[in-house]
Every structure is written in C-alpha cells, then in structure tokens.
Design goal:
The protein has about 475 residues and is of the alpha+beta class. The chain has helices spanning about 5-20, 25-30, 55-65, 120-125, 145-150, 155-160, 195-200, 235-245, 260-265, 290-305, 315-325, 330, 350-365, 390-410, 435-450; strands at about 25, 45-50, 70-75, 90-95, 100-105, 110, 130, 165-175, 180-185, 210-215, 215-220, 220-230, 250-255, 280-285, 310-315, 340-345, 370-375, 380-385. Helix 1 (about 5-20) runs antiparallel to helix 3, helix 8 (about 235-245) packs antiparallel against helix 13 (about 350-365) and helix 13 packs antiparallel against helix 14.
C-alpha cells in the first residue's frame, strides 16, 4: 500500500527534477497509461517523461527513497499486462528517449535509446545497406526498449533469431538510481557475468534500460516470397519441419489457420478458396544465386507433396498485401468477438501438428472461437481465444481452454511463451514450467536488484 504523504513528496521531488510539464497526475492522462494489449487496466498515480539517463537515475533515486513503485513503459504494445501498474505509483514513459545515437556501418552496430521505434531503426540502417532483423508485428510503433524487456521475436526469427541475439550491450538504471553498463560494442566480451542477457526479457523488473548497443547485419540483396495453401491443416503444419530439414533455410516461415485466413482474406491480392484450411508464408533471402538454388529445392519438395497451391509473390504490391494481411490478424480478430485472450506458446517444430490439432479439438469441445497463427519456423504459435467478457460461462470455458493449451505445450516439450513474456496473465501458470528451486533463484535475483520491490512489482511471479 502506497503512503499518500510519501507519494505526494515523491511527485514533488520528481517535478523539481523534470519540470512540471514532464509530470502529470491528470485523470485523463493516467487512463492513457493504465493498460496494454492484455485488456487489464489499473490507474497509476502519476506519469513522468524523462529525457535522459541522468533524469531516469534521479527519478529512481527519489522513488526508492520514498518507496514508490515505478513501471517503465514503451509503446504499451505488450500482450500479458507487463506494463500495467497494478500497485499504482508512477509510470515512467520512455517515449521521449528516442534518439538513434550512432550507426557504425563499418563495425555493423547501432547505439540507440529505448524509445526508438523498431521500424524507424530498420529504415535508418536499411538506407546504409544494413538490417536490424527482429521484426515483431507491431514494429511500426513498438520500441526497442520494450522489445528488449520482452525479448521480442517476429517472422524473421526462424533464420535470424530474436532480440536477445542482437543486443550486445546495455546501459541500465537500477531501482536505487545507480547506473550500470553491461556488454560492449565488440562482438566478443567475456568480462564477468553476462548481465546483458539477464536484463533482456526481464520485463522491466530489474532495471530500466536507457541505452542499447545493437548488432546489425548486411541487408540481403535478394528475396523471394511464396504463399502455400492447402485444404489440410495436418499436411500444412507437417510441412514445416520438412522445409526446415531440406536445406532451404527460409528467413520467414509463417503459419495461419482457416479462421485467421478468413478474417484477413480481403486484404490479400488474391483471396484463397473457401476450402483452404491453412497457409504458410515462405520467404528465402540472400545472394541471388543462393536464393535461386533454394527456391528450386522448395519447388522440388512441394512437387512431392499432395494438395498444395503455390503462389509466387512477384512484385512489391503483392508482397506488401500479403504481409499487411499477416500483421493484421491480431487486430482483425475483433471481427469475431469483442474480446480475446491472446497467448503465444512455443513447441519443437516437429510437434506443431499436435499442438494445432489440440487447439482444433478444444475449440469444438468447448464451443469457443479459437484461431492459431504465427512463427511456425521456430515453433512459436499464437493462440487467440475470442469471447464476450459479459458471458460468465464463456469466460470460464476460455479459462479452461487457456490452461489446456499451456498443458499441451509443456507436454510437447515446449514453453509458456515464445515472445510475449509472463507479465500478469501468465504468472499463475509459471510453476507449470519453472520448478520451485528455479523460481526461488529468480526471486533472489529480483530481491538483489530491487530490495524494496518498487520496480514493476507484481509481475512474472505468482502472487
């Protein structure tokens, strides 16, 4: 429970540091920073807008002194309630720290502040013939700092990996206000513990990232895009492992089930037949000669498969329409029902058919609209359960379905989350994957960095 007098003094101290124009307690503003994509809301007591590492440090020192919770926030695009201020206190909005400090093309690194929009960074480095591979669906508005906090992935992860593979150094402000540096701007650095990896995916519970050193790659000179559609869900999902074992090395291997296809079909250049049960988007990039050889392997593999229609996207417009449709699946779900439970489990790629079969079974048995789509290339499947929150019976059935999906994923050797994190919504299920000894170590780490439990309290661990 926050002491009102301490809160008032803390806000006054922060206003003196940042200026009154960068601190707000207006009810309307507080509502704007009370939620993320999880549909869970909780009003903070204030929002602050720092513009430098020094300001973040001084704010945290004051918050620590007064024992006031602080929740760092990027664009609010998370799906698990990770930035919902459940304990009240202060939301620290990082959008003002949005500078691309340096792009070192010779050494293929970038140095950025956490408020930089992911898509903006990609465009900036692309103009220099480089790429920053992580590409979450929300890349047009999500931020690098938020991506790091959740270890975001995206379609390119099958070939290029996820956010943790592209952050080689960090500047972080601890709950006490101390500023530390982790990693380096070199590819190799073995100096003490790997604190960089510790902070990535920690959901803003250990420190506030104020600067990131990111690894860049040369932009592939050529890419080919294909859409594979089939009237068989089992054959489509089974094809994923065969593609990956055929030496094709796709940079993208995305999956959509029939319900996902239906809600975005009008965005495609050529809407699929009504008999289509599943689709795969396959992209291959690299040197033109290499791409040509791998495309030939893909066509050879498909010639041995029954029932697949193959569409080759031959121009920019067709490719853009295809990706517009894929990235629109999550918001388009609301065509089906007013609310959703959005989950992302991951399983070994060869077990995807078993997972999606379970989702189909649960949908029928529990009379729920459930759809699956996502990053089949790395086994990360998004499961959306559509529902009406005013229907208690449907809510109960949805809760049963969610738990059964988790149980199935764990049973197949998978994980509760591939990229969304734990936050609030998955915290009650953490013990399904993490044993008591492991959880105890995690809690000790949290206490070491945040002894007063003021930084994003109430997240990850079951309450």
């Amino acid at each position: 429970m926050i002491n009102p007098a301490s809160l008032s003094r803390c806000i006054a101290d922060i206003s003196a540091i940042l200026g009154d124009d960068r601190v707000t307690t207006n009810t309307e503003d507080r509502h704007c920073y009370s939620y993320d994509g999880s549909n869970v809301t909780h009003l903070p007591d204030a929002i602050v807008f720092p513009q430098s590492t020094e300001q973040v440090s001084r704010v945290m020192e004051r918050a620590s002194h007064h024992r006031i919770p602080v929740v760092p926030r990027g664009a609010g695009s998370g799906m698990t309630g990770g930035i919902v201020p459940v304990a009240g206190g202060i939301v620290m909005a990082m959008a003002g720290m949005n500078k691309i400090i340096e792009i070192d093309a010779d050494n293929q690194i970038g140095i950025v502040e956490p408020g930089v929009v992911t898509g903006d960074l990609q465009k900036a480095v692309g103009r220099l013939g480089l790429m920053y591979p992580p590409d979450p669906a929300s890349l047009s508005y999500c931020t690098i700092g938020g991506n790091a906090a959740e270890c975001a992935g995206g379609p390119s992860a099958v070939k290029y990996g996820v956010t943790k593979d592209y952050i080689i150094g960090l500047e972080v402000v601890l709950p006490s206000g101390s500023i530390i540096n982790a990693g380096a701007r070199t590819e190799k650095s073995v100096v003490g513990y790997d604190l960089t990896r510790l902070f990535i995916g920690s959901e803003g519970t250990l420190g506030i990232i104020t600067k990131l050193i990111v690894r860049l790659l040369p932009l592939p000179p050529h890419k080919e895009t294909f859409l594979l559609s089939s009237s068989s869900l089992a054959r489509t999902t089974g094809l994923v492992a065969r593609i990956l074992n055929a030496g094709i090395s796709p940079c993208t291997l995305e999956y959509m089930d029939k319900t996902a296809i239906r809600i975005v079909a009008d965005m495609m250049s050529s809407p699929p037949p009504s008999t289509t049960q599943a689709m795969l988007i396959v992209e291959i990039d690299g040197e033109k000669s290499v791409v040509r050889e791998r495309v030939a392997r893909l066509r050879e593999l498909l010639a041995q498969e029954d029932g697949f229609a193959v569409t080759h996207a031959v121009n920019r417009e067709e490719i853009d329409h295809l990706w517009q449709a894929r990235r629109a699946i999550s918001p388009a779900c609301f065509k089906l029902k007013p609310h959703k439970i959005s989950e992302d489990v991951a399983v070994p790629r060869s077990r995807i058919p078993e997972l999606v079969a379970e989702i189909e079974t649960l949908s029928a048995e529990l009379d729920l609209i459930m759809l699956s789509f996502g990053h089949a290339g790395d086994g990360n499947i998004h499961v959306n359960i559509m529902l009406d929150r005013d229907d208690p019976d449907e809510m109960q059935r949805a809760a049963v379905a969610k738990k059964k999906v988790f149980e199935k994923a764990i049973g197949l050797g998978g994980t509760l989350s591939g990229e969304h994190g734990i936050g609030l919504s998955k915290a009650p299920y953490l013990a399904m994957e993490v044993n008591a000894e492991t959880m105890a170590v995690m809690k000790q780490i949290k206490k070491l960095f945040d002894p007063h439990n003021i930084l994003n309290p109430g997240k990850i661990f079951p309450q």
